[in-house]
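Dear V.,

Thank you for sending over the compound details. I've combined the ligand you provided, S-adenosylmethionine, with the protein sequence from our construct and run the structure prediction for the complex. I'm sharing the raw inputs here so there's no ambiguity about protonation or stereochemistry in the SMILES, which I know was a concern on your side last time.
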Amino acid sequence: MTQKFDFVAKTLFGLEEVLAKELRAIGIDDLTVHRRAVSFRGTTEDLYRANFHCRTAIRILKPIYHFTARNEEELYGQAKKFDWSTIMDISHKFAVDGVVNSETFTHSRYVALKLKDAIADQFRDNTGRRPFVDPKNPHIQLHIHISGQECTVLLDSSGDSLHRRGYRQLQDVAPLNEVLAAGLILLSGWDDSKPFVDPMCGSGTLLIEAALIARGIPPGVFRKEFGFENWLNFDKELFEKVYNDDSTERESSAIILGGDLSKRAIEITRENLKSAGLQRFIEVQHSSIFDLVPPATTGVVITNPPYGERLKKEQLDIFYRQVGDCFKQKYDGWDIWMLAGNTEALKSFGLHASRTISLLNGTIECKFQRFSMYKGSMKAKYREEDTNSDKKVANE
Ligand SMILES: C[S@@+](CC[C@H](N)C(=O)[O-])C[C@H]1O[C@@H](n2cnc3c(N)ncnc32)[C@H](O)[C@@H]1O
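Below is the predicted structure of the protein with S-adenosylmethionine bound, written out as structure tokens.
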């Protein structure tokens, strides 16, 4: 129970420190921050807890076998030396993914295929039957990472990516990844003593993640299954203890408000709120950002406006300028955080960012920028913040 293992929690570029903080919050201190990942040592309970609670983890892997190989035949031979019956049995459907950073091994799919063959052949040699491969819905998901000639096989404890929380029934165009949405809120430092507004809420991802954070609801409660539930050594009682521990949950009177110009987006948001059981705590209005009335004299806006795939450059520049003017006129006393993949358009925003964080949204390089709207003392505020600004908290 108290035996410790090595694990690797994967995340999105720019959210590594946020994930490390989340891991520390559940009692995991022995950790190291890497690019797009945090490695840590912990017990099986820590692993279950990390999958269940971490809002910014995409998946958590357990390294199970390390070896050196100079070519594909050696890789196959080394892989056959491991006793795979300690990991899975013949009834398990399995899948293998590969990541290579090597001059020797250049095709990740071929490498994954070699490992898959070695596992299936070992079962055939020992039992006369080969286990089924199911890349879409495997019971056991394995990953092979190769750096040069160093190969590591890792067991995926999460299964489906953890950004698929399970509450999103429907989605509008360009919904934010839930892991990124939670990461933006945690990066902003928002706490539920202040109102939260997303005036261009789309499918409502930021609103839902904000409500979950405010109420301390673990993102794992919506999941149907985690990968580790299929493991041979799955400890059901231990997982039930983690699942039933509601000590992080709390009441919150946070004002959370969303709006969107699109009627369909608002309908989708309402469906998603219902599915997450949060409809009582979040207000949504079918409204343009220009008509939405801020619910208080201070608060935090986090939003990701249209990027420009569908809007022409001139239209986008005008739109961003109008949005900037709207914030200036109506959101005095607020912190406005914008996630934008179109940094050119952000220039038309006409406001000076007091903080800029570089992130990746899928493959799109984004800026997450804070604009502090304080009339009167604006110049003094900007001067002060410029000096302290961590302009590039996370950069390539
Ligand atoms: C990139 S999407 C936001 C996605 C959202 N964060 C999510 O997770 O689903 C941008 C949204 O801005 C909305 N929008 C565009 N112009 C608007 C306006 N003038 N007022 C309010 N919303 C607007 C679009 O309808 C779209 O839903």
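A first observation: The pocket of S-adenosylmethionine is lined by residues 172, 174-176, 199-203, 205-206, 259-262, 265, 288-289, 304-306 (CB under 6 Å).

Warm regards,
I. M.
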